[in-house]
Amino acid sequence: MLTDRHAGFTLLDLMMAMAVIAIVAAIATPRYANALTRYRAEAAARRVVADLALARQTAKSTSSSRTVEFDAADDSYVIPNVRELDTAGTMYRVQLQDPPYQAQIVFVDFGGDAKLTFDGFGIPDSGGFVIVQAGDYQYTVVVDPETGVAEVQ
Prior knowledge:
Largest sheet: 4 strands, antiparallel
Distance between the termini: 75 Å
Radius of gyration: 25 Å
Number of strands: 8
Strand order of the largest sheet: 3-2-1-5
Mean pLDDT: 91
Number of helices: 1
Oligomer: single chain
Shape: elongated
CATH topology: minor pseudopilin epsh fold
CATH architecture: 3-Layer(bab) Sandwich
């Protein structure tokens, strides 16, 4: 004769499921943190490339020079004659240590200084590079001395 039993989970079933979830979380959490740090470093480097392109394009469109001034001690850079897009009254300034990047400028060298000036044709006064770091990840932004085009390496 068949007995009518209620189907359900036992305490042992629930404990085993919780153990599996805990093991998966313990494996996934460090990998996620590592991927997030790598993303921050790469995003900061790409932001520097985009802003160098902005300064270059602004110099070409206005036929006047534009300078990008890096401050490695403050992990920031400014473009003095360009205004912020959302607050037109302030100078264009990027703080890389702030979210979402949380990165540092490790080293800057544009012909011996931390400034890169594009003339009215978009040609830089020198080539050079900027090293950006977040956690253990470093990316180098290199500026071609002939064309002024920047790229991440």
